[in-house]
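Morning. Coffee machine broken again, so started the prediction first thing and wrote up yesterday's gels while waiting. Chain of 358 residues, entered below exactly as on the submission form.
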Amino acid sequence: MSVLDLARPEIRTLQPYSSARMEAGGAQIMLNANESAWEPAGDAALGCNRYPDPQPAALLQALAALYGVQREQLCVGRGSDEAIDLLVRAFCRAGQDAVVIQPPTFGMYAVSARIQNAAVIEVSLAQDFSLDVPALLAAITPAVKLVFLCTPNNPSGKSISRDDIERVAQALAGKALLVVDEAYIEFSDQPSAIDLIGRYEHLAVLRTLSKAWALAGARIGTLVANPEVIGLIRRIMQPYPLPLPCVTAALVALSPSGQVAAREHIAIVREQRVLMRDALAGLPGVREVLTSDANFLAVRFDDAGAVYQRLLQAGIVVRDVRRYPKLHDTLRITVGTPEENARVLAVLNEMTLNKVQA
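Came back before lunch.
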């Protein structure tokens, strides 16, 4: 059985749109896309008067080297969100198929599924936010086409062990595509699941340049998968997903000097994460600081609402995740610069002092 047998049959036979840029080849004069022949004012030679390559070769090569894969295993788009949406549309028939998620987790898996009118089967994480593998596998039905795993998980910060990922992959062979979202993997000691793709053709991995690579505003996300899956996804994605300035920014970030800078910042975040965890855990009113392998900490408070408002008054916005299962008393705090982190702690200490004095 091919992994493509899991996909929607009409997508497998779809004739993809052939963009003007794909047909350009090595032409010197391009008159096939109704573009302007003149660059816009202030373009700085980016060439924005021309449509960009659908899958820029230089960017694919840089990402292939970064992730240790072949270019044919990559599809680059507008953040991981686009890849999630495309996977759901490619594999789930509206009103018939389903995805499996493990709340509390990243919300776009369910949103993309519901937009497609695919069912969302929820298998809650264990009380310690670890993956409940037996419960997950018990929830798999013939309707399930995609299973999403987020590691390190957002918003808890906990990683899924490689053994558990492989155990799920083995069980889903011939049944569903396993999608491992590794948006925060650079901040973790956990190895990537990318090297498992060679053994499991139904395994796909999501990576992003938004977090560790400081390119949230550029919206560059990558789907790493079996070349057959990549070919399928490229059939249905928009013709020109990546703006030229975003590609340029990504190539700078992935250059040798850019990689050095990114790894220096990752090291600072990891160091600050430990310092923040210890400092927050010692504050009155803090119930628990969840273990995190990501660039944030999920913190339980006696009065999370009051803490959120006090930080907001001080010009600091954190993520209120109290609507998520098992996190009714929790705020998610991104690990910022040392100065930003010190300011958060100062506000919380001041809040505690004011309570004592009152």
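The chain has a mean pLDDT of 95. Going to sketch it on the whiteboard this afternoon.
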